[in-house]
């Protein structure tokens, strides 16, 4: 398991480090990583294994919106995360 | 002597530490529930350093599934590391290959996102041909400061969680679960620039869950790759249009 994880990290470093890519390719890699990160956020928030957590989804979505608003307003991602975590914790309790 | 870039990386890692503590705690609890020994889960955290793959491997390990199946799960879930590693590699300039290969073990979702966003913010004019070696070294030190401390917190948190998290009062799961994805989302919200990138981010966010429900292993990954590729292709087509 460790070896598989390591090789997948190491091989691109071995063969791609120090190479300069064309602008279009750099933009492509950037867009891929944005897409990847956004997908990870979504699946981490709303899925538990292969199951969609329908009951918790509205609260988590609201908490996410709150977190994004705080982060955008303050310019500090950490504040956004803390506000979102607080909302995620309290919203289900408020909803009874 | 510790370089200022390394120290900057350590400072930037603080939110990751905060986010890692509950996740590694939870991993420790899950490992205990699945009957792993403390040494096994701590070693796994040190050698694999990838929470989705580690969580996913717990059940097959506990139920004695074939090693090949566990390796396949690790491969599928960690496929994103190929893209992340390839994406971040050019920012290390001409740093020695041996150092890059050794340090590549420290790439995870969090230790990729924060340095990547940091490197993206660097003004392009500072990255001239003459300064490329210094630039790459500085980026590398920043990455090391961030990633080496993060993996330490991850490994220690897993071990600590194994025996201590069982005593955390129940009822805090929602807040804990939100922290890591919430932090990634806030990072993107603050740093994501341009309509194209924003659209790609929103579309990927919305499509990931349906994609994952269609195919648990590949769905979200294929969806993300398709949206990223399509967004890039459309933008390229629009740019070419007025010519």
> Biggest interface and its residues per chain?
A-B, 67 and 91 residues
Shape of chain B: globular
N-C termini distance of chain A:
43 Å
Average predicted local confidence, pLDDT of chain B = 82
Biggest pleated-sheet summary of chain A = 2 strands, antiparallel
Number-wise, the strands of chain B total 0
Radius of gyration of chain A: 18 Å
The main β sheet of chain B shows up as: none
| Largest sheet strand order of chain A | 1-2
Proportion in β-strands of chain B: under 5%
The total beta strand count of chain A reads 2
Helical run tally of chain B: 12
How do the helices and strands follow one another from N- to C-terminus of chain B?
Answer: HHHHHHHHHHHH
User: Which structural class do you get from the secondary structure elements of chain B?
Assistant: mainly alpha
Low-confidence stretches of chain A: none
Q: Could you say which structural class the secondary elements and strand pairing of chain A correspond to? A: mainly alpha
CA-based shape of chain A = extended
Cα-to-Cα separation, first versus last residue of chain B: 53 Å
> Low-confidence parts of chain B, pLDDT < 50 over ≥5 residues?
none
One letter per element, helices H and strands E, the order of chain A comes to HHEEHH
What's this, in brief?
By secondary structure, chain A is mainly alpha-helical. In chain A, about 80% of the residues lie in helices and about 5% in strands.
Description:
The complex is a heterodimer of chains A (96) and B (243). With 96 residues, chain A is mainly alpha-helical. Chain A is built from four helices and two strands. In chain A, a hairpin with a 2-residue loop joins strand 1 and strand 2 (51-52). In chain A, helix 3 runs antiparallel to helix 4 (77-94). The longest helix of chain A is centred in the middle third of the chain and has 24 residues, at 23-46. The radius of gyration of chain A is 18 Å and the shape is extended. The relative contact order of chain B is 0.15. Chain B contains twelve helices and no strands. In chain B, helix 1 (4-12) packs parallel to helix 9 (132-164), helix 4 (51-62) runs antiparallel to helix 5 and helix 11 (195-214) packs antiparallel against helix 12 (219-240). Chain B is mainly alpha-helical and 243 residues long. Classes of the chains: A mainly alpha (96), B mainly alpha (243). Chains A and B meet through helix 1, helix 2, helix 3 and helix 4 of A and helix 2, helix 3, helix 5, helix 6 and helix 7 of B.
